[in-house]
Amino acid sequence: MAKLSEARTFLKSFTNTDARKFVQSIMKRNYAEAIIEHHPDPQSIHRKAVIDKCQYLVDSTFQRIKQIQGSAEELFPLFARLSRNKQPRDEIWFDEFLQAYQLYKHQRKLRRRYEKIKGYLQGTSYCDIGCGGGDFVAFLKHQHESFQRVAGIDVMDWRTEAVKDEIGFQTLDLSQSDTFSEIKYDTMSCLAVLHHVGNTDETQGVFLQNIRHSLSDGGRLIIEEDVMLPKDELKNNPYYQHQLESLKGQQYPLSDFLKFDYATQKDCIIQIDFLANALAVGVPEMAFPCGFRSIKEWTTLLEKNGYEVEEVKIAGFVPGNFNQSSHVYFVLNKK
What we know:
By secondary structure, the chain is an alpha/beta fold.
C-alpha cells in the first residue's frame, strides 16, 4: 500500500504541466552536460549525438509515463523496467551515459560532495547516516586525516567489499523511537536522506532526535536536502537573497524554479527525486514519502528537535551533477 500511495503522489505531481515541462527540460540538458563533463574519454564522443540520445532517453521516459494513463499500479513496474540496473537494460540507455555515470558515481561525485561539506567537519570522529555502499565515508577517511574514526549507519549493510575493512558500520533504523548509536560522533552527516524517512513532523522528528543522541556534546550535524524556495519566504531575508543572486548567473534552472509557487516547486522536486532514483541511480524500490520542506519549515523542525542552526547554505542546481535539484545545506549544532 505504501508504494501505491507513493505512485499516486508522483502521478499527481506529473499532472502539473509547469513542473513536468521544467523537469523534462532540465533532465535533457543535465544529462548531456554531465556526460560531456564526466566521460572518461571526452574526445571520443560526438556531442550532437549525445544530446540527441539524452533527448530520446528523457522524452521516451515521459511518454511511457503518460501511456500508463495515471494508473498508480503500473508506475513502479514501469520504473523497474526503465531502471539503469535492470538487466538487460532498456534501449533508452547508451554507452556514453553508462561510462560517464560510472566515473561520476564512483569518483567525481565523492569529491564534489566532500568539497561541499569539508569546511564544516569538526572533531576527531565522523559518521554518515544513510551511508549506502559506504564509498563516501571511505573517500572522506583518506581526505580528512584529522578523523581518527569514520563510520556509517544504515538500515542494512549495503557496503561494498572494497570498503568493509576501511570504515566502521552499524545497522540501525533511526526512524524507530529510542534507536541511536551508543558510539558518539563529533560530526555526523545526513545527505539527501531525510526526505526518504517520512513526511510528518513526528516521523522526521524521531529520526532527528536519534541523530542528536548519537552526537557528542557540542557535536555538529550536516544535512543536505532538496528544498522549496518560495518567494514570500525569502524576499525579506538579505542573506538568502544574496546567495540566490550569486547563483542565478551560474545555474540556468534556478531563475525559472524561483518563479514557481510553493506547490509547483514541490511538484518539481518530487518528479526529480523519483526519476533520478528510479532511472540513473536505478533503485526504484527505495522509499519515496516525499518529505520535502522549505528552509523555514526545516529550520522550525530542526530547532524543535534540539538543534541550533549555525548556517544555511543554498547550493541550488549544482552544475555538473547528473541529477540536479534545489539543494540546501543545513549546518547544525547539538544544543
